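Hi R.,

Here's the chain you asked about this morning:
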Amino acid sequence: MDNILVTGTAGQIGSELVPALRDNYDGDTVIAGWNKTPLSEDILETGPNVVLDVTDFNALEKIVRDFKVGTIFHMSSILSATAETIRTIAHDVNINGTFNILECAYLNGLEKVILPSSIAAFGDKTPRTRTPNDTIQNPDTVYGISKVFGELMGNYYHSKLGLDVRGIRLPGIISWKTEPTAGTTDYAVAMFYEAIRKNSYECYLAPDTALPMMYMPDAINALIKLYQADSQVLIHHSDFNIHAMTFTPDDLAREIMKINPRFEISYKIDPVRQSMADSWPISLDDSKAREEWGWEPEYTIQDLAEDMYLNLTKKLS
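And here is the predicted structure, written out as tokens:
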């Protein structure tokens, strides 16, 4: 098997995807690509790593050739709230970087590119409940627009140039292993941190803001399962909906209160992030992913809350 390169390894998903890939395959075949954020010790000690700037095509191509890369999991991205404030950098990383990955993969004969998208790829004209896999996409954020670009270019490279590009539209991802970042759905991660540290949390989204969410083990399983799927059975490629659960900040707070009765939640709405959340789906129709490559989540909101609280408590102590 040719080597696997993961970009954005220091990020929320990349930091857990690399260990999972190394568990599934020979650790020496999975290269952890990172840029400014340092890698954790467990990733540094269990396989190769390389400094990688996805906006530098020549450097990217040299890494692909030097490490004999056959597949790229492209996880590098500037997230939603940050992308609105640093538009130039977000465009360079999210759009130019994605194009570089696809063009480099095509020119160097790579086998596959796994290119995650997001629920941010939808907009206020998209049906919000059980959002169809194939529907109107009209995002009005830099991040969302970049994700639609990735989907369209991924499908272009597949249909026009024969490159096997696959992608899933990820909902909000919750994990205890990394600190919350600037993602709009990261309130859910921050809520657990503050529940354990302070017994209270001030949420920047309204209490009834319903969004699709997913626990990290399900997200990692989806990425690897799609990577392993038989190309002959895939009808869609760079644009699969996947869904696990939908909840509001109030719903999640109630689950945390079952574990920590002292926990209290308050609200101070951030208009920018609230506007983004209000334009995103409430739930997704993921029947295409279930039919074409057997997608099925394992975690409910109760499972998520119990496992998250237990592991994060251990980590913070």
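One quick note: Residues 87-107 form the longest helix (21 residues).

Cheers,
M.
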